[in-house]
């Protein structure tokens, strides 16, 4: 019987943006890191694929040049209501468009180059006792580590195991995403509302256009299928009708996800340091989940390196500092994001809001600034 259990400094559960960014950062701090990711790379994910420029200095620190990967620079923004009222603005900070297919794989390759071990398996149990974690996978593997980062995304089997509060609340949101070829400006990200949802449009590498919409199940369930829903609801917004009808799909079938929860979560559970969506998910209408995921990875990594260097003397202090910094960085951003998303969810209020924004365009850049972070500093 082989009873040797491998021991790592840090095990990261989930190899998306948060998990892989932490893995690269921690490997630069000479820590012995294992990432356990259930899927292989590259893989498409349901996501708007527009990232705020706030993360660029940090991605450079991680040795990721998104423009070498073909990312499109984006500095213009359009917002339309269900009835097709349109507002255009410049993005105060700007961003870029890159597919998750491309970005996650580039991060994974970088992590491997830096000596990080990546295991393809599903984590199905994490236990903490005697100051160390035991992590078990569906494939029957077991590992130990001093620190575990939970970076397994919006919702997973582990949330049930950890008895997290949000998992008991049914979420009505689902999302659909596809890539198409067609005519759309490289430098624009558009958010077009329709009854019960909104659709983000922006270009990514290879001149593909990402179309990604989020809606609630109550709107969706009245229709036969995605095509029927799009025809009868989504296409009531003239901008969406044009882009969907005048472009050629790249995917055979659109990707879909359901049970997207924007409920409040705890950034630390059972001593696991939660990063990215595992700690909180902001409404894509009014915030950038991807930059939050990457930023939280930096936050966690800096503190974990200090912990291993004994600059932070014990676990309790590590957890308190992470919680304090996480709240200071994200709490108000999440709150404003939630308020804005709720207002735009109500068609009448959103029409009035758009009228107000049209008269006072500075309100829009104020909202964008409050729901996005400042450019990240590399520390
Ligand atoms: C419809 C929609 C549109 C969005 N659009 C945008 C946008 O345009 N811009 C933006 O900035 N943000 C957007 N977001 C938010 C963004 O997608 C997320 O915030 C971001 O993906 C978070 O990254 P993450 O690393 O936390 O999670 P993920 O990228 O989801 O990574 C989690 C990883 O964990 C793995 N995993 C899960 N469970 C296990 C397990 N038990 N064991 C092993 N591995 C596991 C998964 O396979 C996955 O690879 C959008 C979100 C939605 C829902």
Automatic annotation (TrEMBL):
Transmembrane segments: none annotated. SUPFAM superfamilies: FAD/NAD(P)-binding domain (SSF51905). Pfam families: DAO (PF01266). Gene3D superfamilies: FAD/NAD(P)-binding domain. InterPro entries: FAD-dep_OxRdtase (IPR006076), FAD/NAD-bd_sf (IPR036188), Geranylgeranyl_reductase (IPR050407). Residues 9-42 form the FAD dependent oxidoreductase domain. PANTHER family: CONDITIONED MEDIUM FACTOR RECEPTOR 1, GERANYLGERANYL DIPHOSPHATE REDUCTASE. This is Flavin-dependent dehydrogenase. It comes from Formosa algae.
């Amino acid at each position: 019987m082989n009873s040797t259990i491998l021991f790592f400094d840090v095990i990261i559960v989930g190899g998306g943006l948060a998990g892989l960014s932490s893995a690269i950062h921690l490997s630069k701090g000479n820590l012995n890191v294992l990432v356990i990711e259930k899927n292989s790379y590259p893989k498409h994910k349901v996501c708007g694929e527009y990232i705020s420029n706030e993360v660029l200095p940090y991605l450079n620190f991680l040795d990721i040049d998104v423009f070498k990967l073909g990312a499109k620079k984006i500095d213009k923004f359009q917002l339309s209501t269900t009835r097709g009222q349109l507002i255009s603005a410049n993005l105060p900070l700007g961003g870029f468009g890159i597919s998750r297919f491309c970005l996650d794989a580039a991060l994974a390759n970088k992590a491997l180059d830096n000596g990080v071990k990546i295991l393809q398996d599903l984590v199905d149990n994490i236990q903490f006792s005697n100051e160390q974690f035991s992590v078990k996978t569906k494939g029957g593997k077991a590992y130990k580590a001093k620190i575990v980062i939970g970076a397994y995304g919006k919702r997973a089997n582990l949330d049930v195991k950890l008895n997290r509060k949000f998992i008991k609340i049914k979420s009505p949101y689902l999302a659909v995403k596809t890539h198409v070829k067609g005519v759309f400006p490289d430098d624009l990200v558009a958010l077009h509302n329709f009854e019960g949802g909104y659709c983000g449009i922006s270009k990514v590498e290879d001149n593909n256009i990402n179309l990604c919409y989020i809606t609630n199940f109550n709107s969706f369930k009245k229709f036969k299928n995605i095509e029927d829903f799009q025809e009868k609801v989504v296409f009531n917004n003239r901008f969406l009708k044009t882009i969907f009808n005048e472009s050629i799909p790249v995917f055979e079938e659109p990707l879909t996800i359901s049970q997207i929860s924007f409920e409040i979560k705890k950034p630390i559970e059972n001593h696991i340091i939660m990063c990215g969506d595992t700690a909180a998910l902001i409404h894509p209408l009014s915030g950038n989940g991807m930059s939050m995921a990457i930023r939280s990875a930096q936050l966690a990594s800096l503190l974990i390196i200090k912990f291993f260097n004994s600059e932070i003397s014990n676990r309790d202090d590590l957890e308190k500092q992470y919680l304090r910094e996480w709240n200071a960085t994200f709490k108000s951003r999440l709150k404003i994001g939630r308020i804005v998303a709720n207002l735009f969810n109500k068609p009448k209020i959103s029409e009035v809001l758009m009228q107000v924004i049209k008269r006072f365009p500075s309100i829009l850049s104020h909202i964008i600034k409050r729901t996005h972070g400042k450019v990240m500093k590399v520390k």
